[in-house]
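User: Can you fold this complex?
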Amino acid sequence: MVKKNILPNKQGRFGKYGGRFVAETLVPALEDLSKEYYKVKTNKDFKKEIDNDLKHFVGRPSPLDFAKRWTKKLGGAQIYLKREDLNHTGAHKINNTVGQILLAKRMKKSRVIAETGAGQHGVATATVAARHGLECVVYMGEEDIKRQSLNVFRMKLLGAKVVPVSSGSKTLKDAMNEAMRDWVTNVDSTYYIIGSVAGPHPYPEIVRDFNSVVGREVQAQSKKLFKKDPDLLVACVGGGSNAMGLFYPFLNKKKVKLIGVEAGGLGLSTGKHAAPLNAGSEGVLHGMRTYLMQDKGGQILETHSISAGLDYPGVGPEHSWLKDSGRAQYVVAKDNEALRAFKELTVVEGIMPALETSHALAYVRKIAPKMKKNKIIVVNISGRGDKDIDAVAKIEGIKL
Amino acid sequence: MSRIKRTFSSLQEQGKQALIAYLVAGVPNVESTVSLMHLMIDKGVDILELGVAFSDPMSEGPLIQKAHEKALTNNVTIKEVLYIVKKFRKKDNHTPVVLMGYTNPFEAMGVDKFCSRAAAVGIDGLLLVDMPFEESSEFYKAATSRNIDIIRLVAPTTNKARVKEICLNATGYIYYISLKGITGAASFNPRDVKEKVKTLKRSTNLPIAIGFGIKNGAMVRKIRNVADGVVVGSALVEIISGKKNRIKRDLSNKLNELVSAL
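Assistant: Here's the predicted assembly.
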């Protein structure tokens, strides 16, 4: 049984997953971070400071919006959209960075670094760094820089330095390697703002906690709107922070079904995907034990997804635990299914979702018609699609 | 007595320090790795650290990262590394060989299976960069029960309490990281290193080797007699990754320079 507030344990483990697999140089920094975090986790002043930023800077609470026409079109369960796309900077990622920048300041760090895939976490980090006047360096794979040029320019406008990463697959995992290398070199002055519920302990816990404002709001909004909890929560899973944020407050509510949607890419049988929970195996990467995409020899495989934000061979350790314990289920949506859902939500609801989010929507398209009309689905609209317009145009063969 | 212990105690008797050389297994290819290992010993290297390639070597600088990539392009992973050591042992049964790498490929083979094969081919130690002692009870048991030493890292950031714990959980020798950073990084402060190693000696009777950022004779001289050994990696990997017809000559010159500085 999953008990709230018990996991992770002291070693940062969710069952056998998680932990702290890093070079010795970083262990003391992670211990310091844990100490600081546990000191403030239940501190009222700290909570007040974050709540204030979430309200006035991020614009929370985000609405829980009924997708009236889409519900009618699909002809089954009622679909509600948790509008994280309406947050400042356009995604759920800011929920985490407003919290972590306060930790950085409390720890007297003058410089923050981050890794980014789609660029949303990079933008969210650059944004809070600008607001607090801290130096900011963002590591981004060369491949992703090409796919997400708009976000690269946004980060630069915000005063951040964007460092292209040309090693390995030139995507998110390599950006994370490079950020770790920076951190180990500048560990005294620098705070590493990890953007997902991934990495060594205590990051999976910190990022989950800061994002769980999403689930808490959904809980309160559901009570008000339908006098009960939703029947099904759906979110896309790359590293898994928007899903964890939505799921976490509901872990003890067994009647609420939890579904995470991984990037199926060109299909699981092609090997070109980013679905470690569906097609991977246990291993150790980026400081954590979790499900990974790897070959027989334990080398990490290159991933493929239409969305840069899901293009990652690992997943947050708590998701691995939720999968094994059966509390959550994980499915896949392929590139073309995500693209279809992207277009459908745009024309039917006037909401253009991020390609990452579109994976969750692709699953909703499949499942909603099979559910009774009195059932309620909440899907996390984790980000808006503006950043993907170039990529979508390119797929369509349109020059902008 | 283990090869590592024998090597250090015989060097200590002569008042000498160990020269520990790092190279990535499979660069430029499997066969040359074996002959380069022999060449290194001929030139005065005392202990070999054989790098096992990983797709995501988080603690490595650009030179060693590229070597890992090259080894993987050559399809060299743990099985091939075991073959390399087996072949090396046919001619050399006294030089300690330590494998250095990242947890995942070793686990993929299976901890017990790896350790029993490693013991069979004559591997003396294991250094897993991303596995602090808290995470390594399974490896520790499987390795030390087969007389494979678990080499641990101590960093400039490691506090006294942790140093004690690490030393209690280490065998073979302690690897002191000279700087905050990645392999092949710019420079370290010899005074800081001396200070740290001095305190480290109070916590352990194990030999101490200093590594990271040691590239040439001049740098070796700066920390001469501070510890029981020095590790040179990136500077050698750079030569081995260079033009093939110059590897032997350049490597010999570099090792002459390092040996004469010790």
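DSSP finds 16 helices and 14 strands in chain A. The longest strand of chain A covers residues 257-265.
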